[in-house]
Design goal:
Oligomer: heterodimer
Strand content of chain A: over 45%
Number of helices of chain B: 0
Largest sheet of chain A: 5 strands, mixed
Largest interface: A-B, 20 and 25 residues
Number of strands of chain B: 11
Structural class of chain B: mainly beta
Order of helices and strands of chain A: EEEEEEEEE
Protein backbone atom coordinates (compact mmCIF):
# COMPACT_ATOMS: atom_id res chain seq x y z
CA UNK A 1 0.00 0.00 0.00
CA UNK A 2 1.28 3.46 -0.90
CA UNK A 3 2.30 5.64 2.04
CA UNK A 4 0.96 9.16 2.35
CA UNK A 5 2.25 12.26 4.10
CA UNK A 6 -0.13 15.04 5.08
CA UNK A 7 0.28 18.01 7.42
CA UNK A 8 -1.14 17.27 10.86
CA UNK A 9 -3.22 20.44 10.82
CA UNK A 10 -4.01 23.54 8.79
CA UNK A 11 -5.98 26.68 9.44
CA UNK A 12 -8.05 28.81 7.12
CA UNK A 13 -10.34 31.79 7.29
CA UNK A 14 -13.97 31.38 6.34
CA UNK A 15 -14.75 32.07 2.67
CA UNK A 16 -11.10 31.81 1.66
CA UNK A 17 -9.65 29.02 -0.51
CA UNK A 18 -7.87 26.13 1.16
CA UNK A 19 -5.22 23.93 -0.43
CA UNK A 20 -4.66 20.64 1.39
CA UNK A 21 -1.50 18.87 0.20
CA UNK A 22 -0.72 15.16 0.15
CA UNK A 23 2.50 13.39 -0.80
CA UNK A 24 2.21 9.83 -2.08
CA UNK A 25 5.58 9.23 -3.69
CA UNK A 26 5.22 5.41 -3.66
CA UNK A 27 1.89 5.39 -5.44
CA UNK A 28 1.48 2.71 -8.10
CA UNK A 29 0.25 3.35 -11.60
CA UNK A 30 -3.10 1.71 -10.88
CA UNK A 31 -3.89 3.56 -7.65
CA UNK A 32 -6.59 6.17 -7.73
CA UNK A 33 -6.20 9.05 -5.29
CA UNK A 34 -9.23 9.31 -3.03
CA UNK A 35 -10.06 11.98 -0.50
CA UNK A 36 -12.44 11.46 2.37
CA UNK A 37 -13.20 13.77 5.26
CA UNK A 38 -14.52 13.19 8.75
CA UNK A 39 -16.59 15.88 10.38
CA UNK A 40 -16.65 15.96 14.20
CA UNK A 41 -18.65 13.10 15.71
CA UNK A 42 -19.44 11.62 12.30
CA UNK A 43 -18.18 8.86 10.08
CA UNK A 44 -15.95 9.67 7.11
CA UNK A 45 -17.54 10.87 3.89
CA UNK A 46 -16.31 10.73 0.32
CA UNK A 47 -15.05 13.98 -1.17
CA UNK A 48 -13.43 13.31 -4.54
CA UNK A 49 -11.10 10.98 -6.40
CA UNK A 50 -8.95 10.99 -9.52
CA UNK A 51 -6.25 9.11 -11.42
CA UNK A 52 -4.23 11.51 -13.55
CA UNK A 53 -6.32 14.47 -14.59
CA UNK A 54 -7.55 17.22 -12.33
CA UNK A 55 -11.10 16.66 -11.15
CA UNK A 56 -13.90 18.93 -9.99
CA UNK A 57 -17.15 18.25 -8.21
CA UNK A 58 -19.59 20.24 -6.15
CA UNK A 59 -17.54 19.76 -2.98
CA UNK A 60 -13.98 20.36 -4.11
CA UNK A 61 -11.32 20.19 -6.79
CA UNK A 62 -8.44 17.74 -6.95
CA UNK A 63 -5.17 18.74 -8.55
CA UNK A 64 -2.83 15.84 -9.30
CA UNK A 65 0.85 16.40 -10.04
CA UNK A 66 2.09 15.26 -13.43
CA UNK A 67 4.30 12.60 -11.81
CA UNK A 68 1.39 11.58 -9.53
CA UNK A 69 3.62 11.72 -6.47
CA UNK A 70 1.52 14.41 -4.88
CA UNK A 71 -1.95 15.89 -5.02
CA UNK A 72 -3.81 18.85 -3.58
CA UNK A 73 -7.40 19.03 -2.46
CA UNK A 74 -8.82 22.48 -3.07
CA UNK A 75 -11.80 23.89 -1.22
CA UNK A 76 -12.64 27.03 -3.13
CA UNK A 77 -14.42 28.86 -0.31
CA UNK A 78 -14.05 27.32 3.12
CA UNK A 79 -17.06 27.35 5.40
CA UNK A 80 -17.29 26.53 9.07
CA UNK A 81 -18.89 23.24 8.07
CA UNK A 82 -15.68 22.27 6.25
CA UNK A 83 -13.82 21.95 9.55
CA UNK A 84 -12.90 18.28 9.55
CA UNK A 85 -10.07 15.78 9.23
CA UNK A 86 -9.20 15.26 5.57
CA UNK A 87 -7.72 11.94 4.45
CA UNK A 88 -5.79 11.35 1.24
CA UNK A 89 -5.96 7.65 0.32
CA UNK A 90 -4.32 5.91 -2.65
CA UNK A 91 -6.63 3.07 -3.53
CA UNK A 92 -6.27 0.17 -5.94
CA UNK A 93 -9.46 -0.32 -7.83
CA UNK A 94 -9.20 -4.11 -7.89
CA UNK A 95 -8.82 -4.54 -4.14
CA UNK A 96 -10.62 -1.42 -3.29
CA UNK A 97 -12.28 -2.45 -0.07
CA UNK A 98 -8.90 -1.82 1.49
CA UNK A 99 -9.54 1.85 2.19
CA UNK A 100 -6.49 2.48 4.37
CA UNK A 101 -6.75 5.62 6.45
CA UNK A 102 -3.72 7.54 7.67
CA UNK A 103 -3.71 10.32 10.23
CA UNK A 104 -5.06 12.98 7.85
CA UNK A 105 -5.02 16.76 8.10
CA UNK A 106 -7.20 18.48 10.68
CA UNK A 107 -8.60 21.64 9.06
CA UNK A 108 -9.62 24.46 11.36
CA UNK A 109 -11.77 27.22 9.83
CA UNK A 110 -11.79 30.59 11.55
CA UNK A 111 -14.96 32.69 11.29
CA UNK B 1 -27.99 11.14 6.41
CA UNK B 2 -25.77 8.73 4.50
CA UNK B 3 -28.15 5.80 4.22
CA UNK B 4 -26.19 3.80 6.80
CA UNK B 5 -27.77 3.69 10.23
CA UNK B 6 -26.03 2.46 13.35
CA UNK B 7 -27.53 1.66 16.74
CA UNK B 8 -26.94 2.29 19.51
CA UNK B 9 -25.05 5.56 19.12
CA UNK B 10 -23.55 5.19 22.58
CA UNK B 11 -22.96 2.03 24.63
CA UNK B 12 -21.36 1.50 28.00
CA UNK B 13 -20.69 -2.10 28.95
CA UNK B 14 -18.84 -4.03 31.60
CA UNK B 15 -16.08 -6.45 30.76
CA UNK B 16 -18.33 -9.44 31.47
CA UNK B 17 -21.30 -8.20 29.46
CA UNK B 18 -22.48 -9.36 26.05
CA UNK B 19 -23.85 -6.70 23.74
CA UNK B 20 -24.31 -6.13 20.03
CA UNK B 21 -23.91 -3.23 17.65
CA UNK B 22 -26.33 -3.06 14.76
CA UNK B 23 -25.95 -1.55 11.31
CA UNK B 24 -28.51 -1.21 8.54
CA UNK B 25 -27.95 0.20 5.09
CA UNK B 26 -30.75 1.51 2.88
CA UNK B 27 -28.68 1.91 -0.28
CA UNK B 28 -29.10 -1.48 -1.92
CA UNK B 29 -25.40 -2.22 -1.51
CA UNK B 30 -23.83 -5.66 -1.49
CA UNK B 31 -20.79 -5.00 0.70
CA UNK B 32 -20.66 -4.01 4.35
CA UNK B 33 -17.74 -3.19 6.63
CA UNK B 34 -16.82 -2.69 10.27
CA UNK B 35 -14.09 -0.18 11.12
CA UNK B 36 -12.66 0.73 14.52
CA UNK B 37 -11.45 4.22 15.41
CA UNK B 38 -9.53 4.51 18.66
CA UNK B 39 -8.40 7.80 20.14
CA UNK B 40 -5.22 9.09 18.51
CA UNK B 41 -5.14 6.21 15.98
CA UNK B 42 -6.20 5.97 12.33
CA UNK B 43 -9.32 4.06 11.36
CA UNK B 44 -8.71 0.32 11.23
CA UNK B 45 -10.61 -2.04 8.95
CA UNK B 46 -11.97 -4.97 10.99
CA UNK B 47 -14.29 -7.00 8.76
CA UNK B 48 -15.62 -6.97 5.21
CA UNK B 49 -18.70 -8.81 3.96
CA UNK B 50 -19.72 -9.26 0.36
CA UNK B 51 -23.21 -10.69 -0.24
CA UNK B 52 -23.31 -11.94 3.36
CA UNK B 53 -19.97 -13.76 3.05
CA UNK B 54 -16.99 -12.59 5.04
CA UNK B 55 -14.12 -11.67 2.71
CA UNK B 56 -11.80 -10.02 5.20
CA UNK B 57 -11.01 -10.60 8.85
CA UNK B 58 -8.21 -8.24 9.69
CA UNK B 59 -6.68 -10.14 12.64
CA UNK B 60 -9.50 -9.12 14.94
CA UNK B 61 -9.70 -10.84 18.37
CA UNK B 62 -12.45 -13.41 18.73
CA UNK B 63 -14.20 -11.34 21.40
CA UNK B 64 -15.55 -9.41 18.38
CA UNK B 65 -17.92 -11.58 16.37
CA UNK B 66 -19.56 -10.18 13.21
CA UNK B 67 -22.79 -11.43 11.70
CA UNK B 68 -24.30 -10.53 8.33
CA UNK B 69 -27.76 -12.14 8.02
CA UNK B 70 -28.51 -10.35 4.74
CA UNK B 71 -26.94 -7.68 2.58
CA UNK B 72 -28.74 -4.87 4.40
CA UNK B 73 -27.85 -5.75 7.98
CA UNK B 74 -24.59 -6.19 9.83
CA UNK B 75 -24.03 -6.89 13.50
CA UNK B 76 -20.98 -6.83 15.72
CA UNK B 77 -21.42 -9.07 18.75
CA UNK B 78 -19.28 -8.10 21.72
CA UNK B 79 -18.32 -10.27 24.68
CA UNK B 80 -15.68 -10.14 27.43
CA UNK B 81 -14.23 -6.92 26.05
CA UNK B 82 -11.32 -5.04 27.57
CA UNK B 83 -11.15 -1.33 28.43
CA UNK B 84 -8.76 -0.83 25.50
CA UNK B 85 -11.59 -1.88 23.18
CA UNK B 86 -13.31 1.42 23.95
CA UNK B 87 -13.54 3.21 20.63
CA UNK B 88 -15.82 4.48 17.89
CA UNK B 89 -17.08 1.58 15.78
CA UNK B 90 -18.05 2.56 12.27
CA UNK B 91 -20.17 0.59 9.87
CA UNK B 92 -19.95 1.24 6.14
CA UNK B 93 -21.31 -0.09 2.88
CA UNK B 94 -20.54 0.03 -0.82
CA UNK B 95 -22.03 -1.37 -4.00
CA UNK B 96 -19.45 -4.13 -3.99
CA UNK B 97 -16.02 -4.43 -2.42
CA UNK B 98 -13.97 -4.95 -5.55
CA UNK B 99 -14.82 -2.17 -7.96
CA UNK B 100 -13.67 1.02 -6.35
CA UNK B 101 -17.13 2.26 -5.49
CA UNK B 102 -17.60 4.98 -2.94
CA UNK B 103 -17.80 3.70 0.62
CA UNK B 104 -20.55 5.20 2.73
CA UNK B 105 -20.13 5.35 6.49
CA UNK B 106 -22.61 5.50 9.32
CA UNK B 107 -22.23 7.93 12.18
CA UNK B 108 -20.70 5.29 14.40
CA UNK B 109 -21.35 3.69 17.76
CA UNK B 110 -19.32 5.03 20.67
CA UNK B 111 -18.37 2.10 22.89
CA UNK B 112 -17.01 2.47 26.41
CA UNK B 113 -15.86 -0.66 28.26
CA UNK B 114 -15.68 -0.25 32.03
Amino acid sequence: DAKTTQPNSMESNEEEPVHLPCNHSTISGTDYIHWYRQLPSQGPEYVIHGLTSNVNNRMASLAIAEDRKSSTLILHRATLRDAAVYYCIPRRMDSSYKLIFGSGTRLLVRP
Amino acid sequence: ETGVTQTPRHLVMGMTNKKSLKCEQHLGHNAMYWYKQSAKKPLELMFVYSLEERVENNSVPSRFSPECPNSSHLFLHLHTLQPEDSALYLCASSQDPFSGNTIYFGEGSWLTVV
